[in-house]
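#onboarding

Welcome to the new folks! Below is a worked example of what a typical request in this channel looks like: someone posts a single protein sequence, and someone else replies with the predicted structure as tokens. Don't worry about understanding the tokens yet, we'll cover that in week two.

Example request:
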Amino acid sequence: MSDPSSPDDARRTWEQLLRQMLGEDGARDAMEALEAGGFDPAQMAQAAGLPGDAAGMQAMMAQMQRMMAGSDGQSVNWSLAHDIARQTAHQGGDPSVTAAESARTVSALSVADLWLDAATDLPPAGGARSAWSRAQWVEATLETWKRLTGPVASSVSDALATVLTSGDGALGGLPEGFGGPGAGDPAAMLRGLGGSVFGLQVGQAAGTLAREVFGSSDTGLPLLEGPGTALVPSNVAAFADGLDAGAEEVLAFLAVRESAHARLYAHVPWLRAHILGLVEEYARGISIDLERMEESVRSIDPSDPDALRAALSGGVFAPEVSAEQAGALERLETALALVEGWVEDVTARTVAPHLPHGVPLREMMRRRRAAGGPAEHVFSTLVGLQLRPRRLREAATLMASLVADGGPEARDAIWVHPDLLPGAEDLDSPTTFVARREEQGRQDAEIDAALADLLDGGDGSGSSGTGPTGPGSSGPGTA
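Example response:
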């Protein structure tokens, strides 16, 4: 077995590592430059924890090759994302759900559906009621994270490869032999590296979320492709610890929220596609400012994966947001706020007769959503997507106004068609939304009546010579 503290063995270890990345000539030149500057291979090998035996070195090289080889043509290395997400979710422990926890969770979700029947006409979502470990949450939601982050990652990875491989770019092109013998197209290698970096980041974010979420609906995004409800008992218990409300009451409250989300997405058939479509609309408009990117990467060594990873993590390669994209993001944030506002209103009315701490639990959830968490900041950096709606209180006020004016049916009716959804301007003045909607309906009815009158051979007045009446009408005989 080799001894990594031996100077000769340590030097061979570092040469092998550099050869993998830079090729034969590049590795030799790099080692000569390092040693000329006082580099001690044995000391650095020990400090870096490099394996001294051949099997360990081979395993490490295989891992590096995996990072450098790319993502099988995908914009994100999803295999790496999956592994990192599972590892991150397991940090601090991820105990399997016990039979008692599962039974208690399924019972809470069943009761929640019974309670919700009194607050909304939307029927139960159907599908399974489940208790998940954190790892199970990762497995159930990763497909949607692929859809959310993949298009953005593709644009950024391609732009990164363009900048680093261009002969007249910021780095003057990559060194000859970059990647080692038989490494193939350097641009493809860099796209693969970019895909691995994004996979690493998405995996870390998804895994971190798995340690924070209560169920499938915390982000407001429709993470499940089919109907069903689920809670993560370990996270629910951690949240309940230290609250004035008892653990069973907290579980019941969160079960109602989870079931309300599931009802909405299950019985508003266009809603999931609408929200994910807004994300894709944003992604389709991605454009990378290559000049800005070149300026950002001038000090980065393209053969150093850690430097590229740090740069990507810090948002160095964040895409420029156009006016069209900003509009898509505003509509997305408004839609997510409306979803959360609806769920909050329905939940509050549902739990009021049953849970004595319903009001403080509602306020606790508001503060929790406003604060966000580390995983959300990562997604904001990578995708430009705010997972938490910023206008929750306005949306909740709007929903309460609809109920006050027309009952729960009026609140639920906003989901009839995407064109009828309140917009950002409606959230600016939620208490007058009903009056504005009624006025718009009256004006539309007058226009329809006038068109019908014209088609019937009349003068377009909408009535027998008297013209439309009411506020805003000009009366007969006026232009």
